[in-house]
Amino acid sequence: MKFSAILPLALAQAAAAHYIFPSINNSGNWQYVRQTVNHQHTGPIEDVYSPLMTCYELNPGRGPSGVMNVQAGSTVTFSSSPPIFHPGPAIAYLAKVPAGQSASTWDGKGAVWFKIWQDNAIISNNGISWPNMGAAAVNVPLPRCLENGQYLLRFEHIGLHSASSIGGAQLYLSCAQINVQGGSGGYRPAGMLSFPGSYSPNDPGLHMNMYWPVPTSYTAPGGPVGSC
Ligand SMILES: *[C@@H]1O[C@H](CO)[C@@H](O)[C@H](O)[C@H]1NC(C)=O
Ligand SMILES: [Cu+2]
User: Fold this and answer.
1) Which end of the chain is more exposed for a tag (fewer CB within 10 A), N or C?
2) Number of domains composing the chain
3) How many Å lie between the centroid of ligand 2 and the Cα of residue 68?
4) 77: CA distance to ligand 2 center in Å?
5) What is the CATH number of the domain that holds 30?
6) Ligand 1 touching residue 70 (CB < 6 A)
7) Is the pLDDT assigned to residue 15 strictly greater than 80?
8) Which residue of 26, 31, 76 sits with most ligand 1 atoms within 8 Å of its CB, as the best mutation to test the pocket?
9) 27 close to ligand 1 (CB < 6 Angstrom)
10) 24-35 residue pLDDT tens
11) pTM recorded for the entire structure
């Protein structure tokens, strides 16, 4: 009888094998990153139309007071707790905080986001994988040519293991509050995006069978990365 009591717990733990991104550059958890709804259950967003797609915030519009000073052209390192467990891309977006507003309180709504980085799939005859698999920390390079000022930095990981069903892709994300210094300016976004708004459940990067037939290419949602 004891075994039958233990088994459901083991299954529950396996089902909860998700992850959160609570800190940048080994700072305190939620010190510079807005605390997310999943900070305890660590589960994903599966409805890309959810208002939670902006920053998955527990208390929208009430971020921590911390805004990390970072240099344009340097790296921001997101921690994953536990390490990234599902196969799929990591993507980083920025949104510039409007004049007169603060990175701690701005809501990040509207077509204000642009993609600055993603890690590209590694494809072979045996299958598709991504460099972030198993990573406890992921480095996001900031472009040298950003405008100086405050931004929200939205880090997203998409678990594609169940993406053969519509709505099966699992989105894990959080937003860090940063103040960019030393930028040369002139960054050219490839497009301005909204979260929610710019992803569709039918996007080929969100609805795909990643196992079979082995994909010959992968296009992440949100369009291309911009350039200097
Ligand atoms: C953050 O960490 C990266 C290395 O992971 C380092 O290159 C960068 O300078 C750090 N930024 C700050 C503001 O400490
Ligand atoms: Cu999971």
Assistant:
1) N
2) 1
3) 29
4) 21
5) 2.70.50.70
6) yes
7) no
8) 76
9) no
10) 999 999 999 999
11) 0.93
Determine, yes or no, domain membership for 205: no
Q: pLDDT tens digit string along 128-181? A: 999 999 999 999 999 999 999 999 999 999 999 999 999 999 999 999 999 999
The protein residue whose alpha carbon is closest to atom 13 in ligand 1 is: 70
In a domain, 222, yes or no: no
Q: Tell me the percentage of the chain whose pLDDT exceeds 90.
A: 92
Structural domain including 104 reads 17-181
CB 181 less than 6 A from any atom of ligand 1? no
Is residue 52 in some structural domain? yes
**2 assigned to some structural domain:** no
Per the listing, tokens 């009430």 go with: 62
Q: Specify the residue with its C-alpha closest to ligand 1, atom 7.
A: 75
